[in-house]
Amino acid sequence: MLKRELSVLASGYTYLEGLRWHEDRLWASDFYTEQVIAVDLDGKVERICQVPQQPSGLGWLPDGRLLIASMKDRKLLRREPDGSLAVHADLSALTGGHINDMVVDAQGRAYVGNFGFDLMGGAPVRNTTIVRVDPDGAARVVADGLCFPNGSFITPDGKTMIVNETFGNRISEFDILPDGGLGPRRDWADFGALPDSDDLGVLIAASAIGPDGGALDAEGALWVADAIGKRIVRVARGGRILEQIDTGEFGIFAAALGGPDGRSLFMAAAPDFIEANRRARPEARILMTRVDVPHAGRP
């Protein structure tokens, strides 16, 4: 396959997630320094805010206020114009485990995934939900039965949501209903059946891919960060891999398309996703390369 040249945009972080291109900068959450950052294409970094309970997914309300998934206390936070953080919604009663990545639609509705189980504590794998949070903070479950819902994407017409299931060996999609609900789940891509097991090691060993974050492009393909394969792949609907970028010793856990023409692919890289390892060694970095097809949809 085509060999693309990779460069480092920023480095020295613990574990980066939630990459978003917004207002001419790349935004990201660094889990274990508990901060949201924004970096321009010259590598100049600004610390946007501290999130003591660990930031992950990012998005923006129509009025420009930033939403942040605060993982450990399972709250969706809202950054006000003065820089203060307010609780937009408390999702602890609707989720099983840390909240994680999300996508925010044009109306300001946030669709938030969660772990479903204690990943770092070694608990049995459990399927879980997606919660929709409306602009007024009202929250309700709109999908269930997902295996670690992670990076989520809304098509340019606003009618379909695509969701990576990191430990489910598949990517799912839903119709977005007029009231903001989600229709029945269906496969966007299925990479093979998994054994009937709640053991994470068994599921990972049987998986062809661990879809984490990603980015949707204008041809309807998805760049998928493979959390178990030390690579990022461009996937067509149905599951055919169109391109693969290998990253050697580093795994890729999130991605975004951006830059002035939408053709810069940004990737969050780290040696692994184990909390104890990442807290101890600030080795995470943002890689970037140029691709042929620009960004589309949300985020």
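The above is record 1. Record 2 follows with the same two-line structure.
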Amino acid sequence: MHKHTHTDDDFDWAAMADLLELEGEAHSPYVRQALEELAHLSPRRILDIGSGPGVAACRLAETFPKAEVTAVDGAPELLARARERAGRLGVRLRTQEAAFPEGLADLEPADLVWSAQVVHHVGDQQDALDRLARLLEPGGTLAIVEGGLPVRWLPRDLGFGRPGLQERLDAARALNYNRMRDELPGTVAVVEDWPGMLRAAGLTDVRSKSFLVDRPAPLDDRARRSVRLWLERMRSMLGEFLDADDTATLDRLLDPTDPAGVDHRADLFLLTAKTVHFGRRPEA
């Protein structure tokens, strides 16, 4: 999911709060697994950069209850959602508003910095990683989430429309993504070798690991709702890249009165993988 920062002043992240929170919950198994990779750490201060509504930040607070965890985002509406979530879950969470990446210089350094699917929204991705690395205390760890596998929710053949809708949505998303990257201010072309980029930012002990999110059918109500909101977003964003048949298929999937729609299908599932890249700032 692409999220979390006001890199585009025309984009209303607050309107996406429900989608971001529901999707964060649906994908939460990968966060739990990734944090298990960090269980040997004893961080005193943790930053979640581009926290959105705080799903991962609250998980960090649960995992490291002795740490001071701060959710950092450019959208005050999303930070308010993060505080509400922390209150419901009974975890300690601070919030701080800061634009990404220019606002990072105003943050205090941390022993652990987490940032999920934020860097690719910035024109100069290497510069963004350099700034994230500078937030680390000596010996501190940076974990960034970028890449993985496309999400799948539906059978190849839905029983209507042309089979293979999700593959065509992937292709349309790729075209839309490339245009987004091209139009970002200060875009710098770079080979998206995330481990190599972390090393270029001065980090050592760099490694990557992918984590599976496997929620078989039938989905629970909140995960099902996240699929609906995501497909609504795809219908809105990708219309120019889809033909009339696929647009009609999406409309039928999103029809709340249709038994074959996502609100009612017994075969709706969630399958994806997220890749987390880890690096450590050398000791002084």
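The longest strand covers residues 136-152.
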